[in-house]
Amino acid sequence: MKRRLVFCVLVCVIVFLLLTAGTAQTSQRVIIDTDPGIDDAMAILLALNSPELKVEALTVVPGNVDARQGLENALKIVSLAGRCALPVAGGAQHPLNQKLITAQFWHGKNGLAGVELPASKCNADSRFGPDLIIELVHQYPHEITLIPVGPLTNIALAVSKDPSIVPLVNTIVIMGGSMTGGNVNGAAEANIYNDPEAAAIVFNAGWMVTMIGSDVGERTLMTRKHLTELQALHGPESDVVAKLAEFYVTRSEKSGYQGAAMYDPLAVAAVIDPNLVTLKDMHVDVETKGEFTRGETVANRMGSDEKNVLHGDHYEIEGVIELKPNARVCLASNANGFLQLFIQRMRGSPQPLARAISKMAKP
Ligand SMILES: [Ca+2]
User: How far is the CA of 235 from the centre of ligand 1 (A)?
Assistant: First the structure.
């Protein structure tokens, strides 16, 4: 009887060790490139509270706020999470080819809903953000997933400086672009609009860009019901997230929305659990010129362009030119599933979702 008990205990220990080893192995290394930003802050805290992810660095890009404020905000968020060992590096100071457009209108005067977080106990990493991305991709070949949730300036600088990182990145999942109209104007989504030349570089770099666009973010809403759930959690991080969310939901309601679009957190969640999003391979071009469409992500649903050939004084369609997909475009999300995951992770002590991790891996 005693032997059987010892045997059972041994089996249990082995199973536990195997399970925990499996969890550790399936954690994806990620770098979040961010312009914090209310939804950036939520995305960062979601990532830091998700055992499926191992955040290797935050790199900061100007967008919602300028580069200095963005770095300060990123450091405060990391400090709030008690994660000072995580490298947080500044990067570009402005978009590649235009002036910066900041978004305090949506994010509050400091980019974080006017919520004054305690001064950060963490220090900025001295490395230049794009260089840190290059360094980490070489350090962990085929393991890093890039999650840019701001304008694509830093990523464009990294791949321009060292194109050899492109095949060494596991995958890249951006919050940006849209299939069906923009959130800045009729055509463009804000992250792409803020640096269209950088976005064009990133979409044409030779990798498959998973595009979590604003059109899907706008159907993935945090409502007052979710806000009430967050407010009931009473943790140090969830209290801050609830304050951010209150501002964000109120601001969105004033603009006629039913709730706050969870743009950046949805991109992080798509890496945590790819089952939360529906993707379709397409070719996407970034419009860098159009009078009304600069910054639009032009997604080709058919996978081909007509081939028009000059015949005398006119052109004739002689067939189609097949286009190679360069993007996995998000068409839909499981909004309820996402919000449940988000609120669960803000509760702390999360259990990993072991089931879906590998699906976001490069094919
Ligand atoms: Ca952002």
Answer: 24
pLDDT digits (tens, 9 = 90+) for 177-228: 999 999 999 999 999 999 999 999 999 999 999 999 999 999 999 999 999 9
Q: Which fold has domain 28-360?
A: Inosine-uridine Nucleoside N-ribohydrolase; Chain A (3.90.245)
Q: Minimal CA–CA distance to 150: which of 49, 38, 45?
A: 38
DSSP state of 32: E
Averaged confidence pLDDT in the chain: 93
For residue 55, what are the β-bridge partners?
Answer: 30
CA of 242 to the centre of ligand 1 (A): 18
pTM for the predicted model, two decimal places: 0.91
d(CA 289, CA 199): 13
Secondary structure of residue 314 in the 3-state scheme: strand
Task: Give distance in angstroms: CA of 167 to centre of ligand 1.
Answer: 25
> Model confidence over 19-55: pLDDT tens digits?
544 444 579 999 999 999 999 999 999 999 999 999 9
Q: What is the three-class DSSP state of 172? A: strand
Ligand 1 centre to CA of 50 (Å) is 19
**Ligand 1 mean position to 39 CA, how many Å?**
6
Going by C-alpha positions, the residue among 63, 62, 56 that lies closest to residue 146 is 56
